[in-house]
Amino acid sequence: MPDTTIDTTTMKAVGLTRYLPVDDPEAFLDLDLPRPVPQGHDILVEVRAVAVNPVDTKVRRQDGAVPNPPRILGFDASGIVAEVGPEVTLFAPGDEVYYAGDITRPGSNQQFHPVDERIVGRKPATLTHAEAAALPLTTITAYEAMFDRLGIDRDGGNGGESILMFGGAGGVGSIAIQLAKRAGLTVIATASRPETIAWAKELGADHTVSHRGDVVAQVRALGFHHLDHVAIFNDMRHWDAAVELIRPQGGIVTIDDTHLPMPMGAMKTKAASLHWEFMFARPMHQTPDMIEQHRLLSFVADEIDAGHLRTTVSEVLNPINAANMRKAHAMIEAGTAKGKIVLEGF
Description:
single chain; 346 residues; alpha/beta; Quinone Oxidoreductase, Chain A, domain 1; Rossmann fold; 7-stranded mixed sheet; 15 strands; 29% helix; 25% strand
């Protein structure tokens, strides 16, 4: 009789042993690795779907040696709790969850993934795992950027104010548009192609302008001289336009680090504020308020289940393997993706 025993000590994973261009066949490898055991506040998630973000491609393109190869990327996942560590109180085996993880630890591109419960949310019950996996990193980024950094009231206290989002049709912009509209803001989103313009409007943007043209002129042609808030969700090439458009005592938030000049003279004379958003800051530094990411993901799950927000997935690749990971990274690097690209099923 053949041995049909299932090996519960190993798992499948997609990883890298060298930082390589995406067109190199060894940019990602299919691997078999030891199955982790959850400790402390960790839950062990059986991963059903993962999403790819620009941060994945930035890490893969960096120079130098891979630390402790193989390196496992992946900063978005949806799955089912398989085991829990001894200090876990928020979840139990069998719970469906979604989360973005911690950039200082191995990522979610593995069949079983340990992650701190305090940065994990209850998966929206009305979404599939593929639909849910599209949301965590961008949701946390958009939520923290607007509500934690800019101080906008998520429940409508700033209703009627305006916000300009550079990169409105991208992953972060796609959820930020929805959150901002839910908070009562007037949303101007940048988009440059017919399909991304349609996508931004479908998600609720009141106006779109092209970031390939004169954004200041386009915004003012809409009747806005200054804007209450500006969010830079793509890159800092738009810094001068953002500073020109922000109102006195308004705020600009950005998710992009840059080596480009950032003149501050007009920011000073407007008494405007600049905020940096980095959604990994809480888990990276083990801040006392780490659990806020659990709370905000669970809040968004409730909003989705109530029909107020929707997933931002635009394409699903199956299965989760090295070939599809290379394909997804290539799509992100081409800069033409709208919404989120998801891989489903090991």
